[in-house]
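wait is this the right file?? whatever heres the structure
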């Protein structure tokens, strides 16, 4: 019997302590699922103001007062605090420095909507503190699992000069790409400040990208194993269309690149026990869904009859999520006799377009420019369909939530959407509607097919039942991560260059 592993997860987000996107949901669920399988899992996270605002109980780490983190020629103090991921026994190590993290936002200033100008320094400081902390922990992890570009320098530091890291040779690293589009490219001086030499910062070096230092490339180059958040996305990022210039190195490392589908956290997203919706329900007792629909219509002041399907969208309002092609055919979709409920924030351009659409279709369209967890749950429970027309989608979680809530997904065939939704007509096991080409006409046709299917309520109820029967639990995903971890621990390390 193989021994249990000691894993340190390093991330810029973790639900419910700090959340911007899907990364936080993964970090709120995967550690719990791995711990349930018997592994010793800890999380390292910046001690943001948002973390403090949750009221989490913390204490200073015993034996460690302050770490002096080298940032070029200066040392910056890092306080190390310890708490628990709320509702779990998973330990959270919090790296504190108020100059870097005592701010209202995580990556961007809420007042301006602009990224913080010192993000490179903030996350290199965080990563360097975690790197120093590894050897100081009472129970040293034997696997460091880093998430997205903010942590990309940790695998690089461990493998770049292994004799100087002070870590035992059996320490292994896994680097997960949650969204390749966000790479963390900064001026080359950042690389020197982080301790790298010209050998990896030179043109075509392991950390260099178009004259800059690239944290995502560093993680890909030096991690022992690379994972991404769905099998299809793992293939897509090795192409020019989705590789954002890193397809070459991803192809070169394809032997050690694995796509593992994210799971859905059914302790949070389950209509049978969801405290944020007005009526609970399940497959065997689905009546509560219609009551949730009525509640949502009343809450948002809509005028939508029983024969008119309600389409939900909970998303960042940006082109990547399909807002460009949706806006091109918005009026044509409304002509199909549907209602639309939208929740999210994003580009002002789409804020303005959608707000104007709501004015054109009073009582039929509700646009809510906000991040509202309660309303997000009520949209999943109260809508009949859920629209995700993404240009690319590494995994996507809302299509999984939607199926659990009996809300039929309409999605584009990309990334995790392709791996989770089966098109009506393609199989007797169909669970939704899928379109392939990223065009407004294809999107319109998919919605039209869904609208037509909704008219046959007996067949629609069977489709809803099949969707609700799907199991995307984190337990299955955690088992796949466990397999990857064990294979990584067994493999001989080859230092990248």
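ok assuming it is, sequence goes like this
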């Amino acid at each position: 019997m193989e021994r249990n592993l000691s894993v340190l997860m390093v991330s810029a987000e973790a639900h419910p302590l700090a959340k911007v996107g899907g990364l936080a949901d993964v970090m709120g669920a995967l550690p719990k699922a791995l711990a349930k399988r018997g592994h010793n899992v800890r999380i390292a996270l910046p001690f943001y103001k948002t973390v403090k605002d949750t009221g989490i109980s913390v204490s200073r780490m015993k034996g460690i007062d302050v770490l002096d983190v080298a940032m070029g020629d200066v040392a910056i103090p890092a306080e190390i605090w310890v708490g628990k991921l709320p509702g779990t026994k998973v330990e959270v190590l919090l790296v504190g420095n108020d100059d870097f993290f005592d701010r209202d936002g995580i990556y961007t200033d809420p007042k301006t909507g602009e990224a913080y100008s010192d993000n490179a320094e903030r996350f290199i400081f965080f990563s360097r503190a975690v790197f120093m902390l590894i050897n100081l922990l009472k129970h040293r992890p034997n696997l460091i699992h880093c998430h997205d570009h903010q942590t990309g320098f940790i695998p690089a530091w461990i493998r770049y000069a292994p004799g100087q890291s002070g870590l035992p040779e059996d320490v292994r690293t896994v680097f997960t790409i949650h969204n390749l589009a966000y790479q963390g490219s900064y001026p080359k001086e950042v690389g020197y400040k982080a301790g790298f030499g010209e050998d990896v910062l030179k043109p075509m070096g392991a950390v260099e990208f178009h004259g800059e230092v690239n944290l995502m490339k560093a993680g890909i180059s030096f991690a022992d194993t690379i994972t991404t958040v769905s099998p299809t996305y793992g293939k897509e990022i090795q192409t020019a269309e989705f590789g954002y210039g890193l397809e070459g190195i991803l192809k070169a490392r394809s032997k050690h690149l694995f796509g593992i589908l994210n799971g859905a956290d059914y302790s949070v997203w389950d209509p049978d026990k969801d405290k944020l919706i007005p009526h609970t329900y399940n497959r065997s007792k689905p009546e509560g869904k219609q009551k949730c629909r009525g509640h949502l219509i009343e809450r948002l002041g809509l005028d939508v009859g029983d024969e008119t399907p309600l389409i939900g969208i909970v998303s960042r309002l940006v082109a990547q999520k399909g807002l460009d092609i949706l806006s091109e055919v918005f009026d044509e979709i409304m002509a199909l006799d549907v209602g639309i409920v939208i929740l999210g924030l994003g580009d002002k351009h789409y804020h303005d377009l959608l707000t104007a659409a709501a004015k054109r279709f009073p009582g039929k369209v509700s646009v809510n420019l906000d991040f509202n967890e309660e309303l997000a749950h009520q949209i999943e429970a109260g809508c009949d369909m859920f629209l995700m027309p993404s240009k690319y989608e590494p995994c996507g979680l809302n299509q999984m939530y939607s199926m659990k809530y009996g809300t039929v997904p309409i999605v584009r065939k990309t990334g995790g959407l392709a791996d989770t939704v089966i098109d009506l007509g393609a199989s007797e096991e169909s669970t939704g509607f899928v379109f392939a080409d990223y065009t407004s006409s294809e999107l319109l046709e998919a919605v039209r097919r869904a609208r037509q299917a909704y008219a046959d309520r007996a067949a629609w109820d069977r489709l809803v039942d099949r969707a609700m029967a799907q199991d995307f639990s984190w337990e299955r995903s955690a088992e796949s991560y466990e397999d990857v971890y064990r294979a990584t621990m067994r493999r001989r390390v080859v230092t990248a260059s």
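The two ends are 36 Å apart (CA to CA). so i think its the right one actually
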